[in-house]
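Provenance

Sequences were taken from public entries as deposited. Structures were produced by running a predictor on each sequence independently, with no templates supplied. The record for DUF2157 domain-containing protein from Aquibium oceanicum is shown for reference.
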Amino acid sequence: MISHETLERAVAGGVITSEQRDTLLTMDRSRFHAEEEDEANPEENLRLIGGGNDLFVTVGIVLLSAGFYFMLSTLLAGRTLWIAALAAAFAWAIAEIVTRQHRMKLSSTVLSLAFMAATTVVLWLLIQERYPIRQPESLWQVLALRQTAAPAGYLLFGGIIAAAAVYFWRFRVPILAGVVAVSATLLAFLQTAMILYDGIAAGTVAAPRIEDVPDLLRASLYMPLVCGLVVFGIAVALDLHDRERRTSWSDCAFWLHVVSAPMLVHPLFILATGQDVAFGQAEPDESATVMLTLLIIGFVYVALAIDRRSLLVPTLAYFGSLGIYYLVNSTANSTGIPPFALILLVIGALIITFGAGWQHIRRLIVRPTLPTSVLDRLPPLKVRSYSR
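Predicted structure for DUF2157 domain-containing protein:
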């Protein structure tokens, strides 16, 4: 910001005229008042769409990519591997202009997803050529798949992670953090299944019986829960690294929160409410409803503390969808009030209330309940909202 004295010296030295000085001062005062108005009426600063031109270019990219794909399908009919490889190269080339030079947000996201989709197809086709996997016709054939399923899975998920990492290194597209998190989670599931299989084959782990299936499925919920906690921890670390939400790392944290929320919510819901994993029972009793309400309160508090609505939205959507499922499919007495009706009312009220005054509620709840040493490391409690 140029001081008033500097402007006066510029007028005295003939650098600018007095009219130009007055114009600059008027522009500066207008900017100051605009910032004050923004502070009084904060809006969530989403960095997912860069504006009308970004949306316009995105439409062009979709049309151009579709045309390129249909052209390749005609010229290279039946050569799916080459089509997918050229589609990935095409998306990279367009990203060199749209993402690397102009930093268009929505367009960059679409291009990155197109690149990852084409790369996944390439990896899958290469795996089918090297590790042919046919549909098993017996239990023994399923057991025999271990020798091909393990290296094929490692190649697929490892290749996706490597491709996403290289693309992110080049273009810094935040959604790829979510792609890496999902692929790493699936890779962890594969590795756990291989360890269990090897244990059964070696005789160190007892093979499960039919009656053990519900307990086995319930125990398997710990895997997504652990993965969700790891992804959530990385997202929080990125949030603490960029408390003001000014860099692309906070956008990466946004997508990591979106990925971690379902992995945390579903296992906690099943484990806390005692639902039937094997048969998908979705109706909690009164005690389970209390536990479910406590879960919602816990997720709401954590979302407020770290200033992340992206963690809260999937959570409420999950609980709300379960409530709708129960209300539609239950055969409860029509004169009684289903337990999930209360949950739906709470979720709807929470969404409206938090949407109308997120930062105000955050100050009222978080500030009195956390020590200053913790608050100083969390996203700042102020009027302007940076959360997503």
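Confidence is low (pLDDT under 50) at residues 32-44.
The CA atoms of residues 105 and 134 lie 41 Å apart.
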